[in-house]
Amino acid sequence: MKRTLNGWTGAALAACLLLTLSCAPADTGTKAASSYAEDRAQIEDLQARYLFALDSSDLDTYVSTFTEDGVLDIIAYQAKGRAEIRKKIEEAQNVFDPTAEAVQGSYAPTGRHNITNIVIQVDGDRAVGKAYWFHYGNNNPERKAQIDSYGHYEDEMVKVDGQWLFSKRVIYNEQVADWISPGGNPKAW
Amino acid sequence: MKRTLNGWTGAALAACLLLTLSCAPADTGTKAASSYAEDRAQIEDLQARYLFALDSSDLDTYVSTFTEDGVLDIIAYQAKGRAEIRKKIEEAQNVFDPTAEAVQGSYAPTGRHNITNIVIQVDGDRAVGKAYWFHYGNNNPERKAQIDSYGHYEDEMVKVDGQWLFSKRVIYNEQVADWISPGGNPKAW
Amino acid sequence: MKRTLNGWTGAALAACLLLTLSCAPADTGTKAASSYAEDRAQIEDLQARYLFALDSSDLDTYVSTFTEDGVLDIIAYQAKGRAEIRKKIEEAQNVFDPTAEAVQGSYAPTGRHNITNIVIQVDGDRAVGKAYWFHYGNNNPERKAQIDSYGHYEDEMVKVDGQWLFSKRVIYNEQVADWISPGGNPKAW
């Protein structure tokens, strides 16, 4: 059941289903009780929590946005599973956070990844998506805001126990020759 | 029926409607089966697909985000209908993609339009909206990320066969004197 | 009732409730008729309307995004209630809009705040959230687009008469030493 455009059908059916069951309260997040808007809302929240965790080096939260066997693919390498993803992020912190390099200036600099232009296609408990990311920071003596890199994501997501998680995230970066997008309109599906 | 704040009413009524029909499976995307969240989710996806298509010069996809008689208004000119919109975009590629000009540096530069601050108001099968856009790129010898322009959109959208499309998009740009916003809080409705 | 992941349960129950009431049309935005997606969609729209109002100095609209006794906390000061919030914004316009300072160049410059990475958690008629903001403008002789500041929001929201409003917004800014985030992954709840 594709839910990009006619997602409400499933929602209405879910309501029917619950009614058949005498309107019994169901607090278990049944699979049927969904819609494109619900799935997209939860995935957008996942996308945002992922970036807050990354930028604040909250690696427990960061790896928890992936499935147990999730894949992080940043072209230069692929990491599979939460333990390996955590290890790679720790090793390559400066890839994700340029401000992790030498600190200049009076107070601690920060760096922030942002996501925009989120495209999501849902098919039952699976979803695919693409989006833009860009990064700015202030690791300079004046703490001046500066955009420094950008690229895009190609994502695969799975709903596990009612919660959307990344099963695969591929990251492209237009600031590094070996890491740029192959070009064309990305389509991970 | 306005659906900005009390959109759920329509949703619940839709469920009722389906129940009156004995809960018959309805896979046809009935108009009633909607809500503000569903409409907004689909429109946000449209907005994102529009920009991926524009930045990758995927003009087939780009023009398909407009209705057959849709209008693209970038103040300097207005184009009506998919064929004319395509022609104008082809002619003025560098207006939308500054990196289409002379290429410097070692590998192909890219440029990316981003959308933020999306306001959407839905009234049945019609919607109006406004949002910010900004563009960054790396068309310089160092492939350094640089923001280079920004403005805002004023949009009109229509739901055609269950799919939201742009019936009119007006684009303002704060980097060109003749193209700037008239000022004030934009209200396309 | 938390609605981050299993929001549909409430929605289905709401449908049941309406059915118990003989499917009587209810156009009053009953509290029960909601879901995570509906709440999030309305809050995202609120977030966007807040920024359009701020950047266009539409202070009537700006203060109307807060509850009557809402709090705006920008660390340097806290304002409580719409009248006080309006007064503070008027006094400190250049804090929110750097372009309100000396104007250079041929036509009026503009400045724009953008929101990204929106995390929202809903519990009935109350919600908490966090998000990134960044600002760019063109207050320079060439009207060149330049990012100049960024930070994050920590928000508390309340649904009043079916409409989500800010009951508290805390703003951090990474460009001013006394105004920066305390660090770590922000959690306003």
Q: Descriptors for this entry?
A:
homotrimer, Nuclear Transport Factor 2, Chain: A, 5 helices, disordered N terminus, 189 residues, six-stranded mixed beta sheet, alpha+beta
Q: How much of the residues of chain A is beta strand, in percent?
A: 25-35%
> Compute the gyration radius of chain A: what is it?
19 Å
What is the name of the CATH architecture of chain A?
A: Roll
Give the class-level CATH name of chain A: Alpha Beta
Number of strands of chain A: 6
CATH topology of chain A: Nuclear Transport Factor 2, Chain: A
Largest sheet of chain A: 6 strands, mixed
Q: Classify the secondary structure makeup of chain A into a structural class.
A: alpha+beta
Cα separation of the termini of chain A: 15 Å
How many helices of chain A? Answer: 5
**Fraction of residues in H or I helices of chain A:** 25-40%
The global form of chain A is globular
Q: How many domain modules of chain A?
A: 1
Oligomer: homotrimer
- Which regions of chain A contain 5 or more consecutive residues with pLDDT less than 50? 1-32
Protein described:
The structure is a homotrimer of 189-residue chains. With 189 residues, chain A is α+β, with helices and mostly antiparallel strands. The first copy, chain A, has a single domain, classed as Nuclear Transport Factor 2, Chain: A (Roll), CATH 3.10.450.50. In chain A, 28% of the residues lie in helices and 33% in strands. The first copy, chain A, is built from five helices and six strands; from the N terminus they run H-H-H-E-E-H-H-E-E-E-E. Chain A has helices spanning 8-20, 36-55, 59-63, 82-91, 93-96; strands at residues 66-73, 78-80, 111-123, 126-137, 146-160, 163-173. Chain A has a six-stranded mixed β-sheet with strand order 2-1-6-5-4-3. In chain A, strand 1 and strand 2 (78-80) form a beta hairpin. The longest helix of chain A has 20 residues, at 36-55. The first copy, chain A, is globular, with a radius of gyration of 19 Å. Mean pLDDT of chain A is 82; it is low at 1-32. At the A-B interface, helix 1, helix 2, strand 3, strand 4 and strand 5 of A face helix 1, helix 2 and strand 3 of B.
